[in-house]
Design goal:
There is one protein chain. Helices cover 30% and strands 24% of the residues. It is of the alpha/beta class and 633 residues long. Strands 12-11-8-6-7-14-15-23 form an eight-stranded mixed beta sheet, with helices on both faces. A seven-stranded mixed beta sheet has the order 5-4-17-16-18-19-20, with helices on both faces. The two termini are 30 Å apart. Bound molecules: adenosine-5'-monophosphate-propyl ester. Adenosine-5'-monophosphate-propyl ester binds next to α11, β19, β20, β24 and β25. The site of adenosine-5'-monophosphate-propyl ester has 22 residues, from α11, β19, β20, β24 and β25.
Length: 633
C-alpha cells in the first residue's frame, strides 16, 4: 500500500496435516524437475486431459514470440470440463452451487450443467453461430453466464465476456473490436438490493455498435425491458424450442484454436483483446489450480471473483470444472444485507477454499471481527488472494480471523495475459505475509534492470518471464504488432516477456510485487489505464486536456485523481465536476469514476510533452516532487 515495508522475516509454516495431504509436497524438487525440461513437464501435465488426437510437438518456438503449444493436438476445453465427467461417477456430482443475492438458490450437477450447455450450444448453432465466430457476453453473475461461455466453447466459437460493470461505450468498443454479431445478456443484475439495468446498457451499446444482429436475454430481475422484434429473444423461450436438443457433439478444435478474447487495459486508451486458446490454456489453468489450491473431490471451492474477469474465466469456469470440482458462486455484494453474507455462505455450504482479492478482505475487515466470529468458518482449509499486493495487516487478519491460523494463504500473482497463476505458493511452502513467494514449477522469472541484468536482493527491478508457458496469451486480437511491441520488445534479444510490474526479491528468494510500472492503475483490483480514463474525460465537450493518476487508498488499493484543463470560456464549477463523473460512468463504468477531479490551468510535462504523473502524484500526496529538471510547466 502507501509505504512498501515488507515483512521479510515473518514466517508462517504450514501444518504437517496440510503438507501431508498436499499434491505438491516438495516444491524444490518439482521446480528443479520442471526446470530441467519444461517441455517434458508440460507434456506430462497435458496427459491428464482428454485429447481427440495427441500433439506432435509440445512447443514450437520457430515463430517467437508467437509460440505454439501442443502442436497438432486436437481438443475441446468444454469437452474436458463436462463431457468427460459424464462418463464417470462424477456425472451426479455437484458442479455448481449458486446463491442469488435475494437468497434464491440453484444447484447443478455435472449431468445437468452438461445438458444445459448442450441445449444452449444447439440454440447458438440454430442462430447461425459457427466455429470462429465471436459472441459477446454481458451478464451478471448467474449460472447462465457459465452455461453460455461453455456452450460457445463447445461449438468452437470465441467468447468475449465484458464485465457487467462496464457501461455502454466500453461495451460498444468491445463489440466493435471483436466484430460480434450475437450478444448474450440479462435483463438486469442484482446488486445491493437494487437492479443494475444491463439490457438498457446493451440497447445503447448496440445502437453505437450496430453490427449486432441478435441479442439473447436471460430473465433475471424480471423488470420491464424493451425487446426489439427480430433482434431480441428471451433465453428461456429459445431453450424451450425443439432446436434446443440436449445432446451436442463438441467441435474438434486444434490446440491452438482461439477460445476467448478478454479485454484488458494497457498503456493506450484502446483496450487490448487478450487471446487465449483451447489447448495450452486448459493444461495451464487445470495444472496450476490443482497444485496451488490442491483441489480434492470433497472440496467446496469458492472463487469469489466475477466470471467476467480472467480470475473467473480461469478459476471459476474452466479449471475447477476440468478438475471435476464443486464450486460455490454468489451473485451479489459481500455486505448485503449484512456484513456477514460471505461468512454465512461459508457456514451454509461448508466452503473449504476461499479465493478472493485484498480489496474485498480490507473492505470486510473494516466491519470488525464480530461478523466473521459469529459464523462457523471451521470448514475452511485454504485461503487465496489475487489482483494486487496484499498488505501484511490484511494478510494477518485474513489468516487469523478467517483462517483461524489453520489455513495457509495462497497469494497468487498473475495477469489476464498469463492465463493462470505464475508466482504463488503451494500449500506445503512456508509463507511471509505480502509475498507471492516463488514462481510455480515450469515458470522461470527474473527481476532485472533496464539492461536485463538481475538486480540484487532488496532492490527494485522489472519482473520478466524468461520461458514460454502453455497459458500465455497468443496475441492481442487483431493487433499482432502491438502484442510484439507491448510484451516482447523491451527484452527482444533475450526473448523475455515483460510483465509491466515492479518487484523485489528478498534474501530467501521470495518475490515481493510492488505494483505496476506502466500507466495502469489497480482500483479495487480492477485494472484501468490512465489513458483510457483520460480519453474518456477529453471526450466531454468542456475538457481540453486531462491527466489521471492513482493515489493509495486504505480499502481500494488505489483511487483515481483526475486533473482537467477546461476549454476556453468554460466555467469551473462543482456541477461540472459531477457532470464529468457521470460522463465517465457512461463512457467506461462506475469503477473508473475519479474520486476527485481538479480543474487546473497547466499540467506538469516534460519538454517532449509527456505528462509527469510522478509530479502530480507527489503533489497530491504532499510529498517532495523529486527530480524536476526535465519539467517544463
Ligand atoms: O500488478 C499485478 C496485479 O494485477 C496485475 C494484473 O491484472 P489483471 O490482468 O487484471 O489480472 C488480475 C488477476 C490475475 C498484475 O500485473 N496483481 C495480480 N495479482 C497480484 C498482483 N499484484 C500483487 N500480488 C498479486 N497476487
Amino acid at each position: 500500500m502507501s509505504e512498501f515495508n515488507p515483512a521479510t522475516n515473518e514466517w508462517y509454516h504450514p501444518s504437517k496435516e496440510i503438507t501431508r495431504g498436499a499434491r505438491v509436497k516438495d516444491y524444490e524438487k518439482l521446480y528443479a524437475e520442471a526446470d530441467a525440461d519444461i517441455e517434458a513437464y508440460w507434456a506430462k501435465q497435458a496427459k491428464s486431459l482428454d485429447w481427440f488426437k495427441p500433439w506432435k510437438q509440445v512447443l514450437d518456438r520457430s515463430n517467437a514470440p508467437f509460440y505454439k503449444w501442443f502442436v497438432g493436438g486436437k481438443i475441446n476445453i468444454a469437452y474436458n470440463a463436462l463431457d468427460r465427467h459424464i462418463k464417470t461417477w462424477r456425472k451426479n456430482k455437484v458442479a455448481l452451487i449458486w446463491e442469488g443475492e435475494p437468497g434464491d438458490k440453484v444447484v447443478l450437477s455435472y449431468w445437468r450443467l452438461w445438458k444445459e450447455v448442450n441445449k444452449f450450444a444447439n440454440v447458438l448453432k440454430g442462430m447461425g453461430v459457427k466455429k470462429g465466430d465471436r459472441v459477446t457476453v454481458y451478464m451478471g453473475r448467474v449460472p447462465e453466464l457459465i452455461i453460455t461461455m461453455l456452450a460457445i466453447a463447445k461449438i468452437g466459437a470465441i467468447h468475449s465476456v465484458v464485465y457487467g460493470g462496464f457501461s455502454e461505450q466500453a461495451l460498444a468498443d468491445r463489440i466493435e473490436d471483436a466484430q460480434s454479431r450475437v450478444l448474450v445478456t440479462c435483463d438486469g443484475a442484482w446488486l445491493r438490493g437494487s437492479i443494475v439495468k444491463l439490457k438498457d446498457v446493451v440497447d445503447e451499446a448496440v445502437r453505437r455498435a450496430p453490427i449486432v444482429e441478435t441479442v439473447i436475454v436471460v430473465k433475471r430481475t424480471a423488470h420491464d425491458v424493451r425487446m426489439e422484434q427480430g433482434r431480441d429473444y428471451w433465453y428461456h423461450d429459445l431453450m424451450a424450442l425443439p432446436i434446443a436438443s440436449p445432446t451436442c457433439e463438441s467441435e474438434v478444435m486444434d490446440a491452438e484454436d482461439p477460445l476467448f478474447i478478454l479485454y484488458t487495459s494497457g498503456t493506450t486508451g484502446k483496450p487490448k483483446g487478450i487471446l487465449h486458446t483451447h489447448g495450452g490454456y486448459a493444461v495451464y489453468t487445470s495444472t496450476t489450480l490443482a497444485n496451488v489450491f490442491d483441489i480434492k473431490d470433497d472440496d467446496r471451492y469458492w472463487c469469489a471473483a466475477d466470471p467476467g474477469w480472467i480470475t473467473g474465466h480461469s478459476y471459476i469456469v474452466y479449471a475447477p470444472l476440468i478438475l471435476g470440482a464443486t464450486s460455490v458462486i454468489y451473485e451479489g455484494a459481500p455486505n448485503h444485507p449484512y456484513p456477514d453474507r460471505w461468512w454465512r455462505i461459508i457456514e451454509d455450504y461448508g466452503v473449504t477454499i476461499l479465493y478472493t482479492a485484498p480489496t474485498a478482505i480490507r473492505g470486510l475487515m473494516r466491519f470488525g471481527d464480530m461478523w466473521p466470529s459469529r459464523r462457523d468458518l471451521s470448514s475452511l482449509r485454504l485461503l487465496g488472494s489475487v489482483g494486487e499486493p496484499i498488505n501484511p495487516e490484511a494478510w494477518r487478519w485474513y489468516h487469523r480471523v478467517i483462517g483461524k491460523e489453520n489455513c495457509p494463504i495462497m497469494d497468487t500473482w498473475w495477469q489476464t495475459e498469463t492465463g493462470g497463476f505464475m508466482i504463488s505458493p503451494v500449500p506445503s511452502v512456508s509463507l511471509k505475509p505480502g509475498s507471492a513467494t516463488r514462481p510455480l514449477p515450469g515458470i522461470k522469472i527474473d527481476i532485472v534492470d533496464e539492461h536485463g541484468e538481475s538486480v540484487p536482493p532488496g532492490h527494485d527491478g522489472v519482473l520478466v518471464i524468461q520461458q514460454p508457458w502453455p497459458g500465455m496469451l497468443r496475441t492481442i486480437y487483431g493487433d499482432p504488432e502491438r502484442f510484439k511491441k507491448q510484451y516482447w520488445s523491451a527484452f527482444e534479444k533475450q526473448g523475455w516477456y515483460l510483465t509491466g510490474d515492479t518487484a523485489r526479491r528478498d534474501e530467501d528468494g521470495y518475490v515481493w510485487i510492488i505494483g505496476r510500472n506502466d500507466d495502469v492503475i489497480k482500483v479495487s483490483g480492477y485494472r484501468l489505464g490512465t489513458a483510457e480514463v483520460e480519453s474518456g474525460l477529453v471526450s466531454h465537450p468542456s475538457v481540453a486536456e486531462s491527466a489521471v493518476i492513482g493515489i493509495p487508498d486504505e480499502v481500494k488499493g488505489n483511487i483515481i485523481y483526475a486533473y482537467c484543463i477546461l476549454k476556453a470560456g468554460i466555467q469551473k464549477s462543482d456541477e461540472l465536476k459531477e457532470a464529468l463523473k457521470d460522463h465517465i460512468r457512461h463512457e467506461i463504468g462506475p469503477i473508473a469514476v475519479p474520486a476527485k477531479i481538479d480543474f487546473v490551468d497547466v499540467l506538469p510535462k516534460t519538454r517532449s510533452g509527456k505528462i509527469m504523473r510522478r509530479v502530480l502524484r507527489a503533489r497530491a500526496q504532499g510529498l517532495p516532487e523529486g527530480d524536476t529538471s526535465t519539467l517544463e510547466e
